[in-house]
Fold:
Amino acid sequence: MSIEVIRPGLNTTFQDRGRANLYHLGIPFSGAMDTRNLLITNKLVGNDKNDAVIEFALQGPKLKIKQNNINCVVTGNVNFTFKKNSKIYNGECYKTFDLNNNDEIDIISTNNSMYGYFSISGGFKIEKKWSSYSTHLRSKLGPNKGNKIVENDLLQLNKNVKPIIKKSVDYSNNKIEFIRVIKGTNFDYFSKESQKSFFESQYQVTNLIDRMGMRLDGDKLNNIKSENIKSEGLIKGVIQVPPDGKPIIMLSDHGTIGGYPKIGVIISADYDKIVQLPPMSKIKFKLIDVTSAEKLFKLYSMETKNILDQI
Amino acid sequence: MIKNISNLGDAAIYCDFGSEVNKEINQEVINYFKTLTSKNIKGITNLAPSYNKLIVTFDLDVINYKELVEKIINLKPDEISETASKRKKIPICIDEEFALDIERVSKNTNLNIKEVYKHILNKDFYCYMTGFVAGMPFLGDTNKNIRLKRLETPRVKVPKGSVGITEQFCNIYTYESPGGWNIIGNTPVKVFDKNKEENPILIKPGDSVQFYKITKNEFYKIKE
Structure:
């Protein structure tokens, strides 16, 4: 009952909804970067919403199935093929398909996005660490001893007792014009011009991007008060500005303490969108207040529920 | 006492206990952290205590900013209990292989290398908080003469075990990670051990820490 890893892909890990209540030790939430896709993936293969999936970034894994009657799915905006009885088929995301012993799946790449997901009915046979299946590479926590999935790994599967039912759903992560932001606790550290240009100019996602954070390039933000603050807690979505004036967005595997001023925080409803932006993407930020952000989150939650209800 | 309370984004609360960094304020933060932990308020997903701030994150599907602020304002923190403070001795090697920024520190402080270490070795430091990466202790206060800013552009990779200084603080990188502190040595001991599920951190907030110098040979012996 296993899946053999022929090629691991660039950054392939087990993830679930994340690991709460450990910030005080220095351990972030982690979890699937794109929560909505995690939930859709689990629902499509009939697993629990708290089950783990395989997350990959840019290039995905090539896997060989070592078991009959495996029901699987790929989500995201992903190019993939599968080999069934030695015949190769083009894969379709958000649509379950079944594979048998010695069939293969080749997840070639994500299209114009960062993360995609793969899972199977019944789920993977892995253990929780501090109540979560999520992998946190920096502290080597989670399944697979906290490591990425590598070549020749044998991913063990739970006993698959579920009958195969074909399922699919129509979904695509909408392109967005703006990333909406609430003022950070150090917004007034920046010059009036920089406060303005932060919301008017365009920023570009650089190559320095991973599950911890995303460095941006664009207009330098001038700090007129203090380039450092006393180190304090961080949360995902915080936009920090180091002395070089280029913003860094904290993502799911972020360090839990930071000493750079916080110019803003990305609203919860836009988090799934920002994480999907690959290097070279252009972003514009838009300022909103907490009340509007809460409304947008309600909408986001309702939308998620509607998608899941269709499955 | 919380001096100011505000939102950090739409799903976190930022409790400000003041701008100074000292043991008294830090004890209050730890106190609120402990009280909130024991109260188990529905919707709270994480607590990040630091020198003089406490960040509380919550699940927007369960509670919102206004509702939770109300609860935090009305919270009566438990009596301040002196954190059972422990003294920890940590070996460090200051060989140039590990002291990545010592030249910069020496230059920017106008002290020779020996003088810099006089302010670091065998001095008592108080642990204010742990975090950034798992188990990293933030220690203070260092002597006024060795206080420096962080690096202009943070390093993409700081080696595991690195001991760094910035402002009046000192820390230990428990994992290889990005970071902007001035690195002046390295310790071979395990400051964070994930296998000790109940008690994974060696240095806790409130503890007292002293660094002592070891040779490169001793470093690699302990590392084994």
Q: What stands out?
A: The first strand of chain B starts at residue 4 and ends at 7. The CA atoms of residues 11 and 58 of chain B lie 6 Å apart. Chain B touches chain A through 56 residues (CB under 8 Å).
